[in-house]
Design goal:
By secondary structure, the chain is an all-alpha fold. It folds into two domains: 1-41, no CATH class; 42-350, Serine Threonine Protein Phosphatase 5, Tetratricopeptide repeat (Alpha Horseshoe). Helix content is 59%, strand content 0%. The protein has helices at 3-19, 24-41, 43-56, 62-75, 79-92, 95-110, 117-133, 137-149, 155-168, 171-184, 189-201, 205-218, 224-236, 240-251, 263-272, 291-295. The two termini are 32 Å apart.
Amino acid sequence: MSKNKTFAIVIAVVLVIAVLPVSQLVRILIAVGLAAVFMFYKRGYLYVAMASKAMNAKQPDSDKAWRLYEKGWKAGLSPNYTIMLANLFTQKGDPVIGDEILASVIEKEQHKQKPNQTLIASANISRSMSLWVLDKKREAVDMLQEIRKANLADKNLYVNLGSFLLEMGDLAEAEAVMKEAASKMQETPGMIDNCGLLFILRGKYAEARRLYGQLFESTKPGFPEAYVHAAKVEQALGRYEKARQLYKEALSKQFFHTTAYSEAQVKQMLASIESLQDTPVEEISSPIDISYFETHQYDDEDLFDDKDETPNTDLDDDDDREPNIELDEEDYYKDDDPAVEIDTETFHELEVYEDEYEDGTEDHLKQR
């Protein structure tokens, strides 16, 4: 239901109550009763608002916030908003709960007379991250491959699937996925990072360096992996000063359960070259042609690329759009949902989009 229709219904109800042949006290009681029923029906959003308040307090209570977020899910939210909430749990909370939430969305939609296959695909793409974090890696890959075969793939699928295949060492299939994605849509920074990692794993450092140079000239990814991989390239080529800069840049980004490297690991990488002096080695290019990736237009919108910002959980007016799983400034919202304002500027405990996730935080388990 659109906001205009909701507003019209509210006005109609008010007018009906106003002309009822009853006393003013009875009118007030009727209005209060109807408001209470409406608030109970939409209580899930109130729990979300309360959770955000607990998270954003001067003395944040994250345990309370996560309990309220879970109650919000169980009380009822729109499907797309529920997917967003599941991503929060997978990224920064309890991935087990995140997986449970997504499984419930999928099951509920599948039992409808006319299931929304796009919504189911979006939920499964999100769920691939929770499965990966829970070490159900083969299940995550198989799920994404099924969606890909059904021609329901989006950029989040290509980023996740490419990342998973690279981590599993299936470089040939990862390359096939990357080429397919490049032929169908603009590359996101996450897709480009996957290509860079592929070159690294094949020892093609000159090609990888050119690719990351093009990427950083076009945009500043908000996920750590791109900088870690670029640093590995510089380190392999003996450019330790540049590598240190890139590792430090990676440490300035947000780390999540789905990030390929922990903050401690990146700090260790930095420490291992802290005292090394530059000893550049000759860059020997291979016959591999990467001109396509150098000239193809980048899509700067990646999941979880909020840089220093935190996820926006405001109920914006976009819930009737084609569903996606991105945590960006445009949230999941149905037009008939109550206008619950959730201030996330200091949402440091939920610094989420890996997101990746959509102007650049797609991480290596990132929805980039």
